[in-house]
């Protein structure tokens, strides 16, 4: 059976409830025909290749976390159309300027490898993050990290 | 947000570049970085081909395998610097986005990438914890033996701690021997000299 989500990588309680529902339906929550059933934040921009929005379940201690969702169901960076790279950069540039983001990171998890665990993605449909961490919110000795590798049977600390 | 910098200035280096010195691992590397910055040398513009062997390039990007071997929990780490010396995603051109996808395709053909992460830090180093300000992308494939993460920021107290260390490095670089530092200063840098 085709897998669309990885419940082990879900981070939040409110997210878990929705993700369990998605698991029951066994469909992709990021495919356009399903997206609005689960995603309640406004769509900021829809391009030819990407849909831009704020993450519905943002990571903790961030100022901004934008999500660009690829419009067709792909799971690997090698499946991207080259022009999608252009569009992604344009979308993120526009928002970085609008929100005056001084610095941060762009991050994309890709692929799935059930032999070894996961790459940290809760939804396998390709999506890109634009993140500005909130330095004021970090506790002493805390760093803000983007995770994309987790071995099988990994126990959360 | 404003984090006070106890180190006032380093001649020939702007505030953002001083920010990129915060996270260097040792005094020796600090001195090299300061020298490079003062001379306008960027390791991703003036490439040392003995260290970084270019495996692929197109009009906008180069790619090589990170020469730091044996990185924890990592099966593959590709470094993909933009050919132009830019520091923020805002400065990318349209064609550079398409050319980046071309590098992804090359990487997958060359290394049969099972999956992993693509990351690109940008802008002010305080908000991305980077050490080289030249915009670059990383593709990292975990080896499945443990967590793999990319740090994007450190807390304010830690940044202030790093500023203190950099201030001591700078004092030493300007001629103060380690032995003449205060005991507190010595304690801060004693394990970071090499």
Could you walk me through the main structural features you see in this protein, from its secondary elements to its overall organization?
The complex is a heterodimer of chains A (157) and B (194). A five-stranded antiparallel β-sheet of chain A has the order 1-2-3-6-4, covered by helices on one side. A two-stranded antiparallel ribbon of chain A has the order 5-7. Chain A is built from three helices and seven strands; from the N terminus they run H-H-E-E-E-H-E-E-E-E. Chain A is of the alpha+beta class and 157 residues long. Chain A has one domain (7-134): HIT family, subunit A (2-Layer Sandwich). The model of chain A has no long low-confidence stretch (mean pLDDT 89). Chain B folds into two domains: 11-41 and 155-194, no CATH class; 48-142, 2-Layer Sandwich (HIT family, subunit A). Chain B is built from five helices and six strands. Chain B has helices at 15-21, 27-38, 94-111, 156-173, 183-189; strands at residues 56-57, 62-65, 74-81, 115-123, 136-142, 148-154. Chain B has a five-stranded antiparallel β-sheet with strand order 1-2-3-5-4, with helices on one face. Chain B starts with 14 loop residues before the first helix and ends in a 5-residue tail after the last helix. The interface between A and B is large, with 58 and 58 residues.
Task: For this entry, give a set of tags.
heterodimer; A: 157 residues; alpha+beta; HIT family, subunit A; 5-stranded antiparallel β-sheet; two-stranded antiparallel sheet; 3 helices; 7 strands; globular; B: 194 residues; 5 helices; 32% helix
- The chain-level mean pLDDT of chain B equals 89
Return the CATH topology of chain A: HIT family, subunit A
Task: Catalogue the unreliable spans of chain A.
Answer: none
What is the terminal separation of chain A in angstroms? 31 Å
Number of domains of chain B: 2
How many helices of chain A? The count is 3
Q: Helix amount of chain B, in percent?
A: 25-40%
- Total DSSP E strands of chain B: 6
Strand order of the largest sheet of chain B: 1-2-3-5-4
Secondary-structure arrangement, i.e. CATH architecture of chain A: 2-Layer Sandwich
Instruction: Report how far apart the termini of chain B are.
Output: 33 Å
Indicate the overall shape of chain A.
globular
């Amino acid at each position: 059976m085709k897998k669309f989500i990885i419940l082990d990588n879900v981070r939040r309680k409110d997210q878990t409830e929705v993700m369990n529902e998605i698991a029951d339906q066994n469909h992709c929550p990021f495919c356009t025909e399903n997206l609005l059933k689960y995603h309640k934040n406004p769509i900021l921009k829809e391009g030819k290749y990407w849909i831009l929005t704020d993450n519905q379940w943002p990571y903790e201690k961030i100022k901004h976390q934008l999500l660009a969702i690829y419009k067709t169901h792909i799971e690997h960076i090698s499946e991207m159309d080259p022009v999608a790279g252009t569009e992604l950069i344009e979308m993120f540039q526009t928002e970085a300027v609008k929100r005056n983001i001084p610095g941060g990171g762009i991050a994309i998890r890709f692929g799935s490898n059930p032999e070894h665990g996961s790459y940290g993605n809760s939804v396998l449909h390709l999506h890109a993050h634009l993140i500005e961490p909130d330095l004021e919110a970090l506790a002493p000795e805390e760093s803000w990290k983007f995770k994309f590798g987790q071995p099988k049977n990994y126990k959360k600390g | 947000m404003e984090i006070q910098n106890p180190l006032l200035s380093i001649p020939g280096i702007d505030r953002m570049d001083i920010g990129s010195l915060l996270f260097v691992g040792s005094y020796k590397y600090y001195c090299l970085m300061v020298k490079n910055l003062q001379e306008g040398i960027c390791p991703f513009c003036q490439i040392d081909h003995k260290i970084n062997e270019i495996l692929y390039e197109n009009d906008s990007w180069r790619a090589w395998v990170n020469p730091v071997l044996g990185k924890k929990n990592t099966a593959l780490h590709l470094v993909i610097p933009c050919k132009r010396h830019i520091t923020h995603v805002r400065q990318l051109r349209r064609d550079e986005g398409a050319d980046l996808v071309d590098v992804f395709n090359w990487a997958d053909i060359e290394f049969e990438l099972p999956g992993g992460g693509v990351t690109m830090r940008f802008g002010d180093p305080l908000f991305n914890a980077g050490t080289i300000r030249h915009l670059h992308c990383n593709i990292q494939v975990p080896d499945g033996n443990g967590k793999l993460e990319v740090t994007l920021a450190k807390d304010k107290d830690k940044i202030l701690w790093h500023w203190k260390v950099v201030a001591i490095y700078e004092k030493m670089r300007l001629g103060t021997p380690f032995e003449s530092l205060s005991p507190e200063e010595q304690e801060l840098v004693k394990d970071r000299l090499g």
